[in-house]
């Protein structure tokens, strides 16, 4: 019987530790303006879930860890579509390092672009018309691209 109590106590303590650790990831990601579509404790099939704002909170069957899925991690659907207006931040090689999905005062100095074509799976590019010269440009994306959406 004492083995069973020890195992249950270990799972509870480990679960609390994982929850606090993963919450730290989510707290600072949201503070930096990164969307977090999912916060999960455990791995495997979902046994309980609920949605609050943009985040789906889940408890999973196997108590062996947890994760926070952030925007840009394993893109299921492209976050940017033709016709959208986004802001982009470029590096020295004129490659996109950040895509800002909303208009916020912190990003006033970054280039605004109306997206005409984009590929987030194979060629990793955005093609669009920039606001400063009203001409079509082709920008390559870095694989480590960050998607930012400011939170209130």
UniProtKB/TrEMBL annotation:
CDD domains: S2P-M50_PDZ_RseP-like
Biological process per Gene Ontology, one example term: proteolysis
Keywords: Hydrolase, Membrane, Metalloprotease, Protease, Transmembrane, Transmembrane helix, Zinc
This enzyme's EC code(s): 3.4.24.-
Peptidase M50 domain residues: 9-88
Domain of life: Bacteria
Family membership: Belongs to the peptidase M50B family.
UniProt name for this protein: Membrane-associated zinc metalloprotease
Species for this entry: Staphylococcus aureus
